[in-house]
Amino acid sequence: PYAPTLNHASASTRSVAQLLDLALTYNGASIGWGIDFGLTDWAVPGGTWAFQGSHIGAVLDIASAAGAIVQPHATDATLRVMPRYPAAPWHWATLAPDFVLPAAAVPVEGIQPLTKPDYNRVFVAGTNGAGVLGQVTRSGTAGDSVAPMVTHALNTHSDAAVQRGIAVLSDTGAQANVSLR
What are the backbone dihedrals phi and psi of residue 58, each rounded to the nearest 5 degrees, phi first? Predict the structure, then answer.
């Protein structure tokens, strides 16, 4: 709440990773935080993005263009920008887990079912002349259930549209919030 409100913008073409670095500067000097960028990068034409708010607000706005999350590193002054879903849920059955928690060591506290519309197509668009309009459809589906359109000034490349579309389509259908102890 004590962070100053700043104007963030870029007059020249930069990649999204470069915009994130720019968001963590003050008068051209780093504020001491770095970025661990885990997305597919894309170019953003100059004059496309502008944001008014704190440093972290600017980082969150940039990450939201691709449906990404921002997570602070546990020990370093680094912000990790990574996909909300490293793999789409419809591919989870074919993947090997990174780690397995033994059932005996992790009792389930509760399961809260969550039902969301089962979308299989979304349109992702930029909000200015440099933006693209992307149609992201889950493969193997008819694409007949369309999610509300998502827009962001930084959607200037198909890579941005695909990443945001996967994030939107991954957060649909039957889900469960599982509480573990």
Answer: -65, -40
pLDDT tens-digit map of 8-60: 999 999 999 999 999 999 998 999 999 999 999 999 999 999 999 999 999 99
Q: How, if at all, do strands 174-180 and 150-151 pair? A: unpaired
Residue 155, token pair as written in the block: 């959607």
**Helices assigned H by DSSP within 25-170:** 55-64, 158-170
DSSP 69-83: EEEE-SSSSEEEEEE
**CA–CA separation, 75 vs 73, rounded Å?**
6
For 152, the enclosing helix (H) or strand (E) is none
State the pTM of this model.
0.91
Taking alpha carbons only, the member of 93, 78, 64, 89 closest to residue 31 is 78
Angstrom distance (rounded) from CA 178 to CA 159:
32
Q: For residue 57, report the phi and psi dihedrals to the nearest 5 degrees.
A: -60, -40
The DSSP call for residue 15 is E
